[in-house]
Structure formats: structure tokens, C-alpha cells
Amino acid sequence: MNRLIGCSCTLLILPFITAQAASPGPTGQFRFNEHSEVSYHLVHMLHKVRGSTRKLQGVATLNAGRLVTPLALEVPLISFRSGNANRDNNAAATLEVGRFPKASLSVTQFDENYRQTKPDGSINVRGMARGNWNLHGISQATTLPIEANWTPQGLTVDTTFNISLTAFGIPRPSLLFKPVEDDVAVTVHAVAAPM
Questions:
Q1: Which residues, in sequence order, are CB contacts of 135 under 8 Å at separation 6+?
Q2: 130 beta partners
Q3: How big is the CA angle at 78 (ends 159 and 53), to the nearest 5 degrees?
Q4: What is the pLDDT of residues 65-101, one digit of tens each?
Q5: Cα–Cα dist 146/160, whole Å
Q6: Where is 95: in which H helix or E strand?
Q7: What are the residue ranges spanned by the domains of the chain?
Q8: What is the pTM of this model?
Q9: What are phi and psi of 144, to 5 degrees?
Q10: Using an 8 Å Cβ cutoff, are 139 and 177 in contact?
Q11: What distance in Å separates the CA atoms of residue 86 and residue 96, rounded to the nearest whole number?
């Protein structure tokens, strides 16, 4: 379960950077760093599990406040931690991380529906990112809601969405003969600094 979540996380982050004509916005490259966090929330009838990683990888390129696409983000699935080593090892085996070590997202389009430039010069953007998820050897088209903020110090991007284990060919782990729920909630808080 921990596995899927990583992916998602990955890609949402960059699109928010689209700029307004009246306010050109930043230009340059921004690398996502260890201040980022991708987490998954798995539900079983007996308990809930949260796992997370700070290994989000990728670089966003902006040109006058506009995201240069395609943008690729990825996360190593083995890096997720849930506070239970045995559970994390089982998750890695279920995700077949030896064959499919990473989850990735390719952002091909960002449709902005809200933008605010604040008095301090920071920019808040909301919209929908479109692209493709790659997880467990399967690629699927996806649309993700994004909220992003840009300041002279860098970018932050936030999103929450669900991933279906079945859709990516991932067996649903069971406890006491009862499988976990198919939908896994993923939360991404991505932080990028100028390169």
C-alpha cells in the first residue's frame, strides 16, 4: 500500500507556477527537497495506517511564471515508513520494488482557475494538473487538484487524492482474512528551492 502513494505524490507539485500576464512570476529551476513529504493513508476494518517519505525527487522549470512541461516527479517506494518495519517490508514485497522501484508522475498540462498576487509579492495558485501516473508497471491518465504558493524562497505545492490498488494491479493486503480498502488516500506537501 505504501507504494502507490509515493507516486502520486510526486507530480502534482509543479503546475501551480503558471503566471499571469500582469505579474510575470519567477523564471528558473526549482528542485524539490527533503522538506517535502508524501504520505499515504490505508484503511482496514481493524485499523488505519499512515506511511510517509521525504524522498520526493524532481525539478520544476518555470519561464516567466509558467511551468515548462512535461514535468517529471518520482519517489522511491522503498523509502516509505509507517512505524512498523515488518509492515513496510511486506508493502515493498507487494509492490515488487525490485522490479518497479519508483512511482512517477509526468505533468503535461496545468489548468489554472485561481491566482492571487499578495502585497509581499508571493503568489497563490489553484487549479488542476493533468498527466500520467506510472506505478507497478502500469501507466494511467490522471487529474489532480493543486494548490501552490511561490515566494522568493521557493515553492510549496499541496494536493490530496485517492489511488486504487486494483487499478495498478497491486494485491490488497489482508489482515485476519479481510483485505484493506481498495482506495488509498495520498497527501503531498512538496517544497522546492531555487537551484
A1: 3, 4, 7, 100, 103, 104, 163, 168, 170
A2: 109, 143
A3: 35
A4: 667 778 888 999 999 999 999 999 999 999 999 999 9
A5: 8
A6: helix 85-95
A7: 2-194
A8: 0.81
A9: -130, 135
A10: no
A11: 15
Residues in the chain: 195
Task: Quote the CATH superfamily of domain 2-194.
Answer: Lipid/polyisoprenoid-binding, YceI-like (2.40.128.110)
The pLDDT tens digits of the residues spanning 105-161 come to 888 998 989 999 888 878 888 999 999 989 999 999 999 998 988 887 888 889 888
SS3 56: coil
How far is C-alpha 120 from the chain's CA centre?
28
For 12, 41, 101, 113, 155, the CA distances from 6, given in Å and listed in that order, are 11, 11, 11, 26, 19
Residue 92, SS3 per DSSP: helix
Cell of 129: 494538473
Dihedral sign, CA of 24, 28, 31, 35? Answer: negative
Bridge partners (DSSP) of residue 133 are 105, 140
